[in-house]
Write a structure and sequence with these properties.
single chain; 502 residues; 17 helices
């Protein structure tokens, strides 16, 4: 347990001392970027008596690992969806699945800021042992999620063709052919909008309680159901690719009902709270953070819709669209691991700050940065090494496999910087630095869209290089923010210079 008795008790022991005063803050402690290097976990532990450091690692890992496993189940099941759709031996079906999923998540993430903000608000309330406040935050998030989810469900279900034009731009050729596959897929997928947001808020509530094991169990049950339903609806029912969307929607409704029961049992949800609109005063934190996060997500949507649109329009056969979808499926397997780190930072940093102040929160954040860097290296190596094994699972077509090879290799290298990106984003979410995060994202998106508009956007390799440029800018920016700008920076340090004693 972190305490506020002494800041020195919380500081990780540096692996090296500063060579000059410019590397020390006004309290004589290592600062700048050397602070992050000093926070890297050491293998094996050189000092077994360092109970604080060992306990912190244990707390981070016991929060992050179940969260990573929980999030990892989703892309694995999505990969199973793609496996069965790939067995249809039709690249247009794969391209349609990729386009429809891109459109679904583009709309979904316009409301997903609600569970993103709910987690640190719940963690902050429960860090103060205020369970009533925590319950109110959960009910507010669910109510607003249901309202937005209902509106988005109508949008996707009634106007699927118009929504799909975000990605499928060609009036003839691949665009029109893929459209006919994608419309029924998106309509079935839209049925899962409300329960997907409900489950995301339930997961956020448990993350705020620092309990990531229960959501893992829920995810195992619902995604196992999805995996069982896939062959039934895709192969045997005659629905084809659209059957994967129906299977996913059924599993999401199952997950939402399970979360509802669990949250009622934990007394974090009351029926009255689910149907009562939040008071204006209670909405202020959600609106303040929500507007910034909505702006951030809107800019992200611009970037990823632009990338998908480029890929879908490259050829009339659907091979490029299929290859892009498969590449992003493979890449997402690693991204969800980073999202587990992001969620851990978003929950542990505000909890540590509520209990032990800035010193305790800084210690936690620095350590999460260290684990994020290690995870990024491991994921890059694993994805690169496993590509010859993974790629054939998604399509039996040699032309699709060949088109995946280069982009998938580039995406594996992006994980090297993603360790910093997601640790930094999670820390900023935990600190409530929503406006700064939105600004950083906008800068990164500007770089990515600029790359896509250049000759780089004319090939799948170029599209992935554009994504790499976005992540590189994000990684550098969130790291600078953490050590020089955020409330957790060392005292007396300026943005670009060394120590400032004024």
């Amino acid at each position: 347990m972190l305490s506020s008795s002494s800041s020195s008790d919380h500081e990780p022991k540096p692996i090296a001392t500063a060579d000059d005063d410019d590397d020390l803050d006004i309290d004589g402690k290592i600062s700048s970027f050397r602070r992050l290097i000093s926070s890297l976990p050491k293998f094996p532990q050189s000092n077994r008596s360092d109970a604080v450091e060992n306990e912190l690692d244990k707390r981070i890992l016991t929060t992050a690992l179940p969260s990573i496993l929980n999030l990892l189940i989703v892309p694995i099941i999505n990969a199973i969806d793609t496996f069965y759709v790939g067995r249809l031996r039709d690249p247009l079906a794969l391209a349609a699945q990729s386009a429809a999923n891109q459109c679904f998540f583009t709309v979904y993430f316009l409301a997903a800021f609600l569970p993103t903000i709910t987690a640190p608000l719940v963690a902050q309330a429960l860090g103060k042992e205020d369970w009533d406040e925590g319950g109110r935050r959960v009910c507010e998030g669910i109510f607003l999620g249901n309202v937005l989810g209902g509106l988005f469900w109508l949008l996707l279900g009634v106007f699927p063709r118009q929504v799909l034009t975000m990605v499928l731009s060609s009036p003839d050729g691949a665009g029109s052919t893929v459209m006919e596959y994608a419309i029924p897929y998106l309509r079935w997928r839209a049925l899962g909008m409300i329960p997907a947001l409900f489950s995301a808020t339930g997961f956020a509530a448990y993350r705020g309680m620092l309990n990531t094991v229960t959501p893992l169990k829920v995810s195992l049950v619902t995604n196992l159901l999805n995996g069982i339903l896939d062959p039934i609806f895709i192969v045997w029912s005659g629905l084809g690719a659209a059957g994967a969307a129906l299977a996913t929607s059924i599993s999401e409704w199952t997950g939402a009902l399970i979360y509802l029961r669990l949250l009622i049992r934990r007394k974090l949800v009351k029926w009255k709270g689910l149907i009562t609109p939040p008071k204006w005063k209670a909405l202020v934190p959600l609106i303040q953070g929500g507007l910034a996060m909505l702006l951030r997500q809107a800019t992200l949507n611009v970037a990823f819709v632009s990338a998908a649109r480029r890929a879908q329009g490259m050829d009339a056969s659907g091979v490029a669209g299929a290859a892009y979808g498969i590449t992003m499926q493979i890449y997402s397997l690693g991204v969800v691991a980073h999202l587990g780190v992001q969620g851990t930072a978003a929950a542990l940093v505000p909890s540590a700050r509520a209990m032990g102040g800035d010193d305790a929160a800084r210690n936690v954040a620095d350590r999460i940065f260290g684990w994020g860097m290690i995870l990024g290296v491991l994921l890059a190596l694993v994805q690169w090494t496993m590509l010859p094994v993974i790629t054939p699972l998604f399509s039996p077509l040699e032309e699709v496999r060949e088109a995946v090879r280069g982009p998938a290799r580039i995406s594996s290298m992006i994980h090297l910087v993603n360790g910093l990106v997601f640790a930094g984003e999670g820390t900023m979410l935990g600190l409530g630095s929503f406006r700064d995060l939105a600004l950083i994202t906008a800068i990164g998106v500007g770089v990515m869209v600029g790359c896509l508009a250049s000759p780089l956007g004319g090939s799948l390799n170029g599209v992935l290089i554009s994504l790499a440029a976005f992540n590189f800018v994000q990684g550098v920016a969130v790291t600078i923010h953490h050590v020089r700008i955020s409330p957790l920076r060392r005292r007396g340090f300026a943005l670009l210079g060394g120590r400032n004693n004024k």
